[in-house]
Amino acid sequence: MKNLRGMLGLTLLLTLGLAGCQATTSKSFRSEPKAVQTTTKVTAVNKVQTNDYLGRWVSPSDQVALYLTSKKQLAFFQANHPTIKGGFTLKLAGNNQANLTQLKFGSANLNLTTATSMILKRGNTTIQLTKDSGWSPQHNVIPTDAKTALQTTALAAPAALKPEY
């Protein structure tokens, strides 16, 4: 009898143990992965860098095209004026301003009003320039002559930047 009770006890223990290991059908005990959405805090850029000034800047009304490449090469095309080309230095002056210096060009003050708009002050001349977002200061080539650089299609106002979502 003791042997029978021991076997029944062992069977009962195993049955209860196995019943506890089975998956439950109740939703309260299921653990499903939850999708957690995290966002990064977006802050405005408040510091202008030298790279912000590089690129192709145009003014259709003044017939001007200014090229500043990442290899520190400048090309200034203006209707009825000789083309100025050569190396340049650019020093940040704070408040979205920079000083541009080139041997033949002289000195000019650059003032970024937005990411795609800049005012060039050179002597008594002030020119409002718009950045050509389709021209890369690292990869694109500066035109070799003023005729090409000052073509009406080349000076057409560049398309506005489209936000990416």
Kindly summarize this structure in a few lines.
The chain is of the alpha+beta class and 165 residues long.
Helical stretch tally: 2
Which fold does the CATH topology of the domain at 52-149 refer to? Answer: Lipocalin
Distance between the termini: 78 Å
Structural class: alpha+beta
Helix content: 10-25%
Taken from the alpha-carbon principal axes, the silhouette is rod-shaped
| Residue-averaged pLDDT | 80
Radius of gyration: 34 Å
Record field, number of beta strands: 9
Largest sheet, strands/sense/barrel = 9 strands, antiparallel
- Catalogue the unreliable spans: none
From N to C, what is the helix and strand string?
Answer: HEEEEEEEEEH
CATH class of the domain at 52-149: Mainly Beta
Q: Record the strand order, biggest sheet.
A: 4-3-2-1-9-8-7-6-5
Q: Mind sketching the topology for me?
A:
Elements: H1 2-21, E1 55-59, E2 64-68, E3 73-78, E4 84-87, E5 89-94, E6 97-102, E7 106-114, E8 117-122, E9 125-131, H2 146-149
Antiparallel strand pairs: 1-2, 1-9, 2-3, 3-4, 5-6, 6-7, 7-8, 8-9
3D structure, described in words:
The protein is of the alpha+beta class and 165 residues long. It has a domain at 52-149: Lipocalin. Helix content is 15%, strand content 33%. It contains two helices and nine strands; from the N terminus they run αβββββββββα. The protein has helices at residues 2-21, 146-149; strands at residues 55-59, 64-68, 73-78, 84-87, 89-94, 97-102, 106-114, 117-122, 125-131. Strands 4-3-2-1-9-8-7-6-5 form a nine-stranded antiparallel sheet, with no helix packed on it. It is rod-shaped, with a radius of gyration of 34 Å. The termini are far apart. The model has no long low-confidence stretch (mean pLDDT 80).
